[in-house]
Amino acid sequence: MSTPDASAAPSPDARPPGAQIDWGVAAGIGRRIARPGPLTTRYTLEAARSELASAAVAAEAPVREVTGLADGLPVPTASVLDRGQWIDAAARSMSSMLGGGQPGSPGGLNLAGRLGGVQAGGLLALLSGAILGQYDPFSPDPRTGDDGVLMLVTPNIIAVERSLKVVPSDFRLWVCLHEVTHRVQFSANPWLRGYMLDNIALISADNGESGGEMVARISAALKSEKPREKGVLGAMQLLQTPEQYDAFTRLMMLGTLLEGHADHVMDAVGPGHVPTVERIRAAFDQRRKRPQNPLQKLLRSLIGMDAKLAQYIRGKAFTDEVVATVGMARFNAIWTGPDTMPLPEEIDEPRRWIDRVL
After folding, report:
1. How many CA atoms lie within 13 A of 53 on its CB side?
2. Residue 99: which region, alpha, beta or left (left: phi > 0; alpha: psi -120 to 50)?
3. Is 154 exposed, middle or buried (0-12, 13-18, 19+ CB in 10 A)?
4. For 1-14, how does the pLDDT look when each residue is reduced to its tens digit (9 = 90+)?
5. pLDDT-derived band of residue 227, with 50, 70 and 90 as boundaries?
6. Quick check: 259 and 312 in contact, CB under 8 A?
7. Contact, 181 vs 265, CB < 8 A?
8. C-alpha closest to that of 117 among 22, 34, 30
9. Where are the beta strands (DSSP E) in the chain?
10. 27, 157, 205, 326: which has the highest count of C-beta atoms within 10 A?
11. Spatial distance between the Cα atoms of 124 and 26, rounded to a whole number of angstroms
């Protein structure tokens, strides 16, 4: 039996799924098919961009005061983008996290990589109309080169504020309060970025499992009486190995904490800085709950938007209860490291986290 050459490059099929996607193709396709933003004059658009940039800076001080995080750190600016610019940034971020052909790089991957890029581009185009703001810890700030950039998507914010019939300047600051909280979370706790990357690597790594082994594992799981999650989470639980699903669960718990904490901070800061915050919160919550047609429901399920909504609700309830019980200063023990992250059984029973950690 011959011994394989250890220096030989792995076959394309052995690479993680993200490395088999040409993200340059994804960005190009996404920009081409993304829907245009709402009709607006150049003056209105530029005024909105300027106000969002200012609001992102103005939000930093009250967020730091309420959270007790990032005191004394520099206040970075935000990237205020249109939908096409967000698609480019998202493709670069995904390539950084998962590997693959970089947007704008010459050459690219093989046919399978380009086909993967077409599929990813369709998803990016869909998401480009839904994202109001996003803190991306994986992309460098274009101004400073430091890890992490806050992005605000102007046409989407204009579209939603018009739909909700809210005061634009108040809504823009309200959105910034949420996204700046994410920036503060990561700025004050740099370990979060590595923690996310480590778990993403576990999820996306080739586990060496053959197709037959995967089918046997899924069949056994379906026949067992072990409880499974519903919807997308249940599908992930079936498709992933136990090690991958554990990493996926850790990321879900982190996401639930980050989103819930940001919503808690928005509500704590809002009354003192956003005059119409109650109207905005009521209108936005109603928008989250409004019924969708069957196609919208399917798309929301496939891209995990319903799971993300659950993250906001469960994470905020967890943060509200812990802060009400022990105060924000003691709550901040949660940012110590991976061992102080909430466990799945603690998210809905915050007292268990308090008893374990504090």
Report:
1. 10
2. left
3. buried
4. 433 333 333 444 44
5. low
6. yes
7. yes
8. 22
9. 79-81, 133-140, 147-153
10. 27
11. 8
Q: Look at residue 70 and give its three-state secondary structure.
A: coil
Provide mean pLDDT across the span 309-336.
Answer: 92
* pLDDT tens per residue, range 58-92: 999 999 999 999 988 888 889 999 999 999 999 98
What is the token pair recorded at 177? 């309060």
pLDDT over 90 for what percent of the chain?
A: 54
pLDDT in tens, 330-345: 999 999 999 999 999 9
Instruction: Show the CA angle centred on residue 260, arms to residues 71 and 34, nearest 5°.
Output: 100
Instruction: Record the tokens describing residue 209, joined without a space.
Output: 């499992």
Distance CA 108, CA 21 (A): 9
Judged by DSSP in three states, 293 sits in coil
Count of Cβ atoms closer than 10 Å to residue 53 Cβ: 18
Question: Could you give the strand order of the β-sheet that contains 79-81, starting from the edge strand earlier in sequence?
Answer: 79-81, 147-153, 133-140
Tokens of 82: 């249109």
pLDDT at residue 1 in the model: 41
